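Researcher:
Attend to token order:
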Amino acid sequence: MAKLQGFEFWRKTLKEARFVVAPMVDQSELAWRLLSRRHGAQLCYTPMLHAQVFVRDTNYRRENLYNEVCEEDRPLITQFCANDPEVFLQAALLAQDYCDAIDLNLGCPQMIAKRGHYGVFLQDEWELLEKMVRLANEKLSVPITCKIRVFKEVEKTVRYAQMLEKAGCQLLTVHGRTKDQKGAMTGIASWEHIKAVRKAVNIPVFANGNIQHLSDVERCIQETGVQGVMSAEGNLHNPALFEGRSPPVWEMAEEYLEVVKQHPPCTLSYVRAHLFKLWHHTLQIHQDLREDLAKVKTLEGLADVSKQLRLRCQEEIAKGKDVEEKESGLPFPHWICQPYVRPAPKEPVANGNSQGSEVKKTVCHKRALEDSDGTADTLSKNKLKKRSRNPNKNFCPEQKPKYIKCEQCGNPKGNKCVFNLCRGCCKKKAFREVADCPSHGLRFKTKAEKQKAEKDERKEDESKKGSATETERNSSSPQPLPVPSTELQEASKPLLPL
């Protein structure tokens, strides 16, 4: 059967999906995808998977894809981050039988993507991207898709999209924000860029950005002409977004926990993160339960905290406090599923006075990145928590130990490894060569020698036992009786004739 392409792929395989749940690291796992599908989502993506790790680690493949195969969870697109055409192809070949398409992540703007050289940090390497997409399109049995961010210039964004289409991309998701629009500087996504890309290419396009309610979805499709709309944060705060509903938080939380129980195993940190998102507005009020939610170590414990939050909200409803919630600035009471709206970045005052320049300085000042040359003046919330647990912890990048990379995969190698490799690569090599690596606690040679010695000892014991048995058998066999000497003499006399 010929591989479906472009609009035919969107119509037949994806069933003209318009409501799409985005790939979210540690968040778009099977249980959350199934919950979203129950409430209107028509297409889901796996979390972003690391192609290199997917190729070399069987457990990673099993835990992140193979164990999550479910008939209800289709259509499904598996997303990879990669920067090597061959590695990306190998990972895609291992995954293609478990999904309906393979997606290349070209939109992740996080620091980990910068260090690993993938995601949006590949958007200027068009020759490499063209090779990756073309090779995957030629070798895979399922279509290849891409998720990108825009450039500041609309024209460059359009050329970028056309290059990917020409290389073999069969569906394009366009996040209408640039590489620098993240965190506190997220701002508003540009639908104008998305509209320009949609007009310029002849493949289906999904839009991503500014989606908080179902009305936003309809407006985006109308203004940009895209085939579908993808939601990430909007979906995390309200899984019923595509139904056009804003249900009570506990309704979604309890249903999600039920799905988690029906489809184990699910990593506890994923479940905790989802409950933090769902109960975000309520936890701003009930700080004590926020701490409890962060500390519990079991699924039952998380369910219990969620139940306590529900009871407190129902008490507030009974007391008529929902009217007072309007003063908090939220469109609905805090116990209703609703999006979290980041405050927009402040624009500097352009009147030229000193006050304006001070505002500009305040807006432009950003906490120094961890991989920058200077040290940060302030620490992130996460680092402050670490500092509270360990006051002597050092966050200065210049004083951090410099790790030598593994010769095979690029991960930090063991300091005393006999092969100069990381533990994973060392284990494979030591197994093949039947060698030891005391640094990584690998004893393949020692175990083999021990097994051989035990085997030789067993053989020797068996041979000794066999010889002893033979001796015993010989000693126990009947011996001929001795003939009396008189009888021998008479028997030796010659017979005389009669």
Notes: The longest helix spans residues 444-476. The first strand starts at residue 19 and ends at 21.
